[in-house]
Structures are given as C-alpha cells and as structure tokens.
C-alpha cells in the first residue's frame, strides 16, 4: 500500500487547471528525467487518449516539458517551459498515437542525454498521482513515492537474493518489488521501492555484484 496523507486527498498545489493534465504531467516529466539520470537534450513525447485530445488546452505539453526540466507542479515558470527548454538547448517535439490498452492520460517519452537514451511510459491516474508503467521494454509499476532502486541484470539464479541480502545488511527495508524479464536467461529489470534512502555506498556495492549491468537510484518526487 502506498503512502498517503491529507494533501493527497485534497489535491496537489499546482500551476494549471487540472491535477491530471498539469500536476500529474509535471510529475511524469520529472520521473522520466530521474530515470534518464541526467538533463535531457532531445525528446519525442507521444501523447495518448485524453492527453492527446485535450492536453494542449490544459497545458499538458507545458507541464510535461516543465517536469523534464526539473520543475515542480507549483513552479510559476511552467507557462514559459517551451521558451526555457529552448534556452537550455533541449530539443523536443510532440506526437500523438494510440498506445493500446492504457489509462487515457498516458504519455511515452523517448529521451536522449549526454550519457544515454531511455524510453518511459507513464500515466497520470488522478489527483496528481502518477504510475510509470514501462521502462524500455520492461513492465514496471513506479509511483515515485518511495526511494527506488532500478537494476538491469542478467536473468540468472541468485541475482535477486544477492541484491535483497545487500539491502538487508544495510538495514534497508523493501516496501515493494517487481522483476520482469525479456525471456528466461536474458536481460531482466528489478525494481525495488524501499522505506529508507539508498545511499551512494549501497548503490556502488550493488553495481559491483555479478551479473548486474546497470543500477540507478530514483529519489521520491516532491
């Protein structure tokens, strides 16, 4: 069960007319930026459903770019997000497409930075709450309310146990966990949401484990 408080029930503090189309969109952009792990330089943003049909009128395009630039939902610069992106050299374009059987407020990010590229699919599910559903070809469920360890690894026996033992030794409790894979013995993605902060020392030890290809920590959204 995810964390909640009275502010979740009342709705987020935000700039814009709609919690789903504005606050949720900012949070989706911010989460995609965190998953990329750096300032995006280029991006293709594909809008689905209600985002595609009414998003421009609700400022969804501005909100998504604002999140990618690192802004929060209450940032007064959101209306100038396109101009700020140009000033920072962030090249972005929007497309619309049917992304399948997903929430109407769904977006797909294809992002490039100096160090790499990433594809992220996520939905704004109401009240500013988001759900990241896919990273590259892997299905995930990330809401951005816990410190999250994301690990790309070879699908081999014992890898999950090694990671969970490392976290237990560091006194880090796992709140939620999901592992998905391309196929047996191929690449897999492990996502662990934790109650405690995952520091650089733990991340470094994780990266040195056998069969680990990449590992990153996603801090909770504000």
Structural features:
single chain; 222 residues; 60s Ribosomal Protein L30, Chain: A; 31% helix; disordered N terminus
Number of strands: 10
Regions with little confidence, pLDDT below 50 for 5+ residues: 1-17
Structural class: alpha+beta
- Please give the alpha-carbon distance between the first and last residues: 19 Å
Instruction: Name the CATH class of the largest domain.
Output: Alpha Beta
* Physical arrangement of strands within the biggest beta sheet: 2-1-3-4-5-6
Average pLDDT for all residues: 90
Radius of gyration: 17 Å
Tally the structural domains. Answer: 2
Helix count, DSSP H or I runs of 4 or more residues: 7
CATH topology of the largest domain: 60s Ribosomal Protein L30, Chain: A
**Quick one: biggest sheet?**
6 strands, mixed
Shape: globular
| Order of helix and strand elements from N to C terminus | HHEHHHEEEEEEHEEHE
What's the CATH H-level superfamily name of the largest domain? D-3-phosphoglycerate dehydrogenase, domain 3
Level of helix content? 25-40%
Percent in strands: 25-35%
Provide the CATH architecture of the largest domain. Answer: 2-Layer Sandwich
Write the layout of secondary structure elements.
Elements: H1 6-10, H2 19-36, E1 42-48, H3 49-58, H4 60-68, H5 81-88, E2 91-96, E3 106-112, E4 117-126, E5 129-135, E6 138-142, E7 148-154, H6 159-169, E8 174-181, E9 187-194, H7 200-207, E10 212-218
Helix pairs in contact: 2-4
């Amino acid at each position: 069960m995810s964390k909640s408080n009275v502010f979740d029930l009342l709705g987020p503090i935000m700039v814009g007319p709609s919690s789903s189309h504005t606050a949720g969109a900012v949070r989706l952009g911010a989460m995609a930026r965190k998953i990329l792990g750096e300032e995006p330089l280029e991006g293709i943003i594909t809008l689905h459903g209600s985002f595609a049909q009414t998003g421009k009128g609700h400022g969804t395009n501005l909100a998504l770019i604002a999140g990618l630039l690192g802004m929060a939902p209450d940032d007064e610069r959101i209306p100038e997000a396109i101009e700020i992106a140009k000033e920072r050299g962030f090249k972005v374009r929007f497309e619309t497409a049917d992304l399948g059987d997903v929430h109407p407020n769904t977006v797909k990010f294809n992002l490039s930075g100096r160090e790499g590229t990433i594809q992220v699919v996520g939905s704004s599910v109401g009240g500013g709450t988001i759900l990241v559903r896919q990273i590259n070809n892997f299905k995930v469920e990330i809401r951005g309310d816990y410190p999250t360890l994301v690990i790309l690894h070879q699908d081999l026996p014992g890898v999950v146990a090694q990671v969970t033992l490392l976290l237990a030794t560091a006194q880090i409790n796992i709140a939620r966990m999901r592992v998905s894979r391309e196929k047996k013995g191929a690449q897999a993605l492990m996502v662990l949401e934790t109650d405690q902060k995952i520091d650089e020392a733990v991340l470094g030890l994780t990266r040195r484990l056998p069969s680990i290809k990449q590992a990153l920590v996603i801090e909770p959204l504000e």
